[in-house]
Design brief:
This protein is 44% helix and 17% strand. By secondary structure, it is of the alpha/beta class. It has one domain (3-249): TIM Barrel, CATH 3.20.20.140. The strands form two sheets. It has an eight-stranded parallel sheet. Helix 4 (79-89) runs parallel beside helix 5 and helix 9 (219-230) crosses helix 10. The two termini are 27 Å apart.
């Protein structure tokens, strides 16, 4: 199997901060040209949520908006307005995200949990899948998602304990793989344990990986690392993970 065979699978970058990607039109065209036909653009706060929805307008078949409230961005004065915007626009999006908990960042944990509980309720009522950030909060994040009655969740860039991963998989949830598979042993361990049918592939653009700033066209970096880790042909990995994303996002 050649790499080119993977380019024909209508690939999906399941998580990109497109509003922060430089030269966005060029980046989208570069992705489409190598087979990344759809990009899930995620929001982090009120401003990025608005930008994400606006970015999707000129690319309705390519850019799929998701809006959320990232734990890094939570500020008490902005909570009500941000939640109101999410409530108003969530049904026009493919998912709620990026949302969750982060116990390394200096944002009050109680406030994080309160906001997370509220956005999970919005997702449950709208029957939308959830894109979960869970750094250093893996168990609590899983418990809150599960308790909220969320049917579909993906634990973004999962690098946590394998015993919690078992609960995530047991609930029918997914994890996502990023280009960090090339070097992160914790991410590698989680992705190796999860069955391919429960993995989405993403870039988390414009995150830098070993000094290289990513964009959606770099989804192939993720797929190549995943192919090596799973010891499976690249074309098969591309096909299965693309189908996983279509199923997860209801495309």
């Amino acid at each position: 199997m050649t790499q080119n065979s993977a380019y024909n699978e209508n690939l999906i970058d399941a998580h990109a901060h497109l509003n922060a990607v430089a030269q966005i039109d060029r980046a989208i065209q570069a992705a489409v040209s190598i087979g990344v036909k759809q990009i899930v653009a995620v929001g982090m706060d009120l401003t990025s949520n608005k930008e994400t929805i606006e970015l999707a307008e000129p690319y309705p078949q390519t850019v799929l908006p998701a809006i959320g409230y990232h734990p890094w961005m939570i500020a008490p004065a902005a909570v009500d307005e941000t939640l109101a915007f999410i409530q108003k626009h969530i049904r026009d999006c493919v998912a709620l995200g990026e949302v969750g908990l982060d116990y390394k960042v200096k944002v009050n944990k109680k406030l994080q949990q309160e906001v997370f509980a509220k956005v999970l309720q919005i997702a449950a009522e709208a029957q939308k899948p959830v894109i979960v950030h869970s750094r250093f909060s893996y168990e609590r994040s899983f418990q809150m998602v599960s308790s909220a009655g969320i049917a579909k969740a993906v634990f973004h860039w999962y690098s946590g304990p394998l015993e919690i991963l078992e609960h995530i998989l047991g609930k029918g949830y997914y994890i996502s793989a990023t280009p960090a598979l090339h070097y992160s042993r914790f991410h590698q361990a989680a992705v190796k344990k999860a069955p391919l049918e429960r993995i989405l592939t993403e870039t988390d653009s414009p995150v830098e990986y070993q000094g290289k700033k990513s964009e959606p066209a770099h989804l192939m970096d993720t797929l190549e690392a995943l192919s090596r880790l799973k010891e499976m042909p690249l074309a098969e990995v591309a096909a299965v993970t693309a189908q996983n994303a279509r199923r997860f996002f209801g495309l």
